[in-house]
Design goal:
The protein is α+β, with helices and mostly antiparallel strands and 223 residues long. The protein contains three helices and 16 strands. It has helices spanning 22-37, 41-57, 137-140; strands spanning 4-6, 64-66, 71-73, 78-86, 96-103, 110-112, 117-125, 143-149, 155-162, 169-171, 178-179, 184-188, 192-199, 203-204, 211-212, 218-221.
């Protein structure tokens, strides 16, 4: 029987929301309240819809994490748009497996650690804002790369990539942090992409077109 566990303490409310969303939610709710007090019915209804959408976008559901040995879980909700072996990338020395996950504005945008390990380096690069589903987004868009090494010495990299609409990358971890599989570490606001680089030989568990969930879906198994 497969084993599962919580990587973070479960929330105490029925609809948990990421802390990054609170300022936007409060601002939208305040504007909506003012419009309602001024008896501007249509604008107030639009404000209410916007407020509910912001709450929906910043939702942060708890997830149970698979604990099968060597399992690498998805760092993001979304659709797999690339999965295969590549060479010569600045995020990994030598041949590796690259998995790209595209997040639409309707996906949960909280990001999670794919495998337990130690953060060896975090590298942020400003850049452009091409649509996140394009291949050139990996190289040219604003991105934040997190390099992780497992206890067994396996190396991997998770890259948060800003998209056409996404203009804010949030990363709450630092170099030398020891992290758990499935642990929350940040998010990207309003549509974006994450790339995962794994050692060559990793047994893939996803294919292009798969819809996956952060922390719950297994991308592959380290060997």
């Amino acid at each position: 029987m497969d084993k599962f566990s919580w990587s973070d303490r479960p929330g105490q409310i029925a609809f948990p929301v990421a802390s990054a969303g609170y300022p936007l939610i409060f601002a939208a709710a305040f504007v909506t309240a003012v419009l309602a007090l001024l008896a501007l019915v249509l604008p107030a209804l639009c404000g209410l819809i916007v407020t509910f959408f912001i709450c929906y976008f910043f939702r942060d559901p708890d997830r149970v994490i698979p604990r099968k040995k060597g399992a690498v879980v998805s760092p993001a909700d979304g659709k797999v748009i690339a999965a295969g072996t590549i060479n010569n990338t600045k995020f990994f020395e030598g041949p590796c497996i690259k998995i790209s996950i595209f997040m639409s504005v309707f996906n949960v945008h909280v990001n999670r650690i794919p495998h337990e390990g130690v953060v060896k380096k975090i590298s942020y690069h400003p850049g452009k804002f091409f649509s996140a589903n394009l291949d050139k987004a990996s190289e040219y868009n604003e991105h934040n790369a997190i390099f992780i090494e497992t206890e067994e010495g396996k190396k991997m990299c998770v890259v948060q990539i800003a998209g056409l609409i996404a203009r804010r990358i949030i990363c709450r971890i630092q170099k030398d942090d020891r992290l758990s599989r499935g642990q929350r570490f940040g998010m990207i606001c309003f549509g974006s992409r994450l790339d995962v680089y794994l050692p060559a030989g990793t047994k893939l568990n996803v294919t292009v077109g798969d819809k996956i969930k952060s922390g719950a879906s297994v991308l592959g198994y380290l060997v």
